Amino acid sequence: MAAKKAQTRTERDALGSIKVPKDAYYGSFTARALQNFNVSKIKAFPSFRIALANIKIAAAQTNAELGELQKGHAKAIIQAANEFIDGKFYDEYPIDIFQAGAGTPFNMNLNEILANRANEILGGKKGEYKPITPNNHVNWGQSSNDTIPTAIRLAALMEARELLPEIEKLSKAFFQKAKQFKNILKIGRTHLQDAVPITLGQEFEAWGSTIQRSHDHIKQSFSHLQEVAIGGTALGTGITAHPKYRSLMVKNLSKLTKIRLYPTKYPMELSSNMSAFAIASGSLATLGSDLIRISKDLRILASGPAGAINEINLPEVEPGSSIMPGKVNPSIAECITMTGLQVNGNHHTVAAAVHESELELNTMTPVIMLNLLWSIHILQSGCAMFRDLCVKGITANTDHIEKLLNGSLCLATGLSPYIGYKATAELVNEALKKGKSLIEIAESKDFMTKKELTNILSAKKLTKPHATDQKLKKRIENNPNFQEFMKKIS
């Protein structure tokens, strides 16, 4: 039995006639875009679709207030846009993210949906575009060149409302661990070699501060996205828009979205200069890099358990191998590393797209939108995963940490203020050769009492600033054993 042939309607545009599915709310422009652009199967992010629909609502409100659009027509467009926001026509918004420059297909796709639905509301039929047309009514006072960049800004700001709290919660999780681990003394390492004593709490505190700093950087950088060129239409000149449209449009859009926006002083600049997106994306990439670094540190500290550092335990979330029984990997830390790498790759694309502007327009906005919003999305869910499935459940191997500390020469730096760098280095070398602790070697030289030595080399004391005991230093310098030792090594 032959398949039933899909019913179509014929629409005409500047290029001629084209078949459109009979029941489709989109029209000829979208139909041509669907024929032309089949690259990735990736569609527009929901937040972008919602942002663009809000722009259409605010535009209808503004044009009605200014007498540029009949109130009944505006009401129908607004109803259609709200239905779109509620998800009613998302299947009618199918265009590939890789498409014609400046996002014109995205803009026209929604214009056609809203026009057809508004005409239905007013008693008309899909495809007839009476009394409302996509260009002359839904798109009045607008251009893809100002609506698409504004929609990206709005979408990013909407997404940031969800991202920023997740980053802050992750930072707090690290600070809570810092408090829990504040009295656990351990080896601090530089160049992957033993350095000086620190506390495990200080290590986690540094990570918490890093994440908080990224939070503040993102919040500040995203504030640049509040400056919009909506109302500038094609090239920022405001051609086809009412003289009062721009200021009223920004006011209505701010009220509608509950996001404080302000009109740029130079709308022509924002048609071509997309650096605000590079700044915002760069702050996300910084967080991505921070997450990569921290997750790497956690994996190093948890490495082993028998053959490496093994100072901390990461929560076990899944078996680590298909062939090695009992092996458990740092899966969550590995996942957040991949997330950070993707965000850094996304930023590279955004930055490259930003400098692709030519003369009065940047046509790369669709790919900017994809990568910027993708980064926000995966960082939001990634930070939540990292916090709940990794950081919160970290425990310390206190006995092993103490064993490593006692067997290390990282306390040596504490001797330098009292006997000097050269003498301390000699004691360290001797301890390494003889396989003894630094305290044992220093005590055998009889420069000072065991009590004085223990106090100087207190790991707890060496994890924060403290003044040198000048009286003790003088006694050591006057000690004949010390004087003889210095003659031997000079």
Structural description of this entry:
- This protein has 490 residues and is mainly alpha-helical.
- It folds into three domains: 8-140, Fumarase C, Chain B, domain 1; 152-228 and 271-397, Fumarase C, Chain A, domain 2; 409-485, Ribonucleotide Reductase Protein R1, domain 1 (Orthogonal Bundle), CATH 1.10.40.30.
- The protein contains 19 helices and eight strands.
- It has helices spanning 28-36, 46-65, 71-85, 104-121, 134-138, 144-180, 200-222, 245-257, 269-272, 275-301, 331-354, 365-389, 398-406, 416-419, 421-434, 438-445, 450-456, 470-478, 480-489, and strands spanning 8-13, 16-21, 185-190, 193-199, 227-228, 262-263, 312-313, 395-396.
- Strands 1-2 form a two-stranded antiparallel ribbon.
- Helix 7 runs antiparallel to helix 10 and helix 15 packs across helix 16 (438-445).
- The protein is elongated, with a radius of gyration of 32 Å.
- It starts with 7 loop residues before the first strand and ends with a helix.
- The mean pLDDT is 94.
Query: Unreliable runs, pLDDT <50, ≥5 residues?
Result: none
Main sheet attributes: strand count, strand direction, barrel closure: 2 strands, antiparallel
CATH class of the largest domain: Mainly Alpha
Estimated helix fraction: 55-70%
